[in-house]
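User:
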Amino acid sequence: MILNFILWYPSSKAAELVELVKKMGKPPSYVKKWLTFQTGVGKKGIKHYNIVFTEKGHGDDAVVEISKMFRPFLDHDNVEAKVEVLVSARDALKVLG
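Assistant: Predicted structure:
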């Protein structure tokens, strides 16, 4: 499964949140790959993408465990989070028939 954990936060919170990243710990062993990207999104601040690839059959476990890892971020004002399940273009075409 491919998951996208998104965080939005004000630019003024960046230094505080970097400290939280340092304390996050290692991802579960069934996480095969973890890519991180970010972009500025104007007045809303910074949008941080975490694309996580899991071993087959561990998607649900990954959502729970990685959500726990991001939980401390949500204790900060104006920080928002979202989790998305991503589908490859090839798999999306299968849905269309």
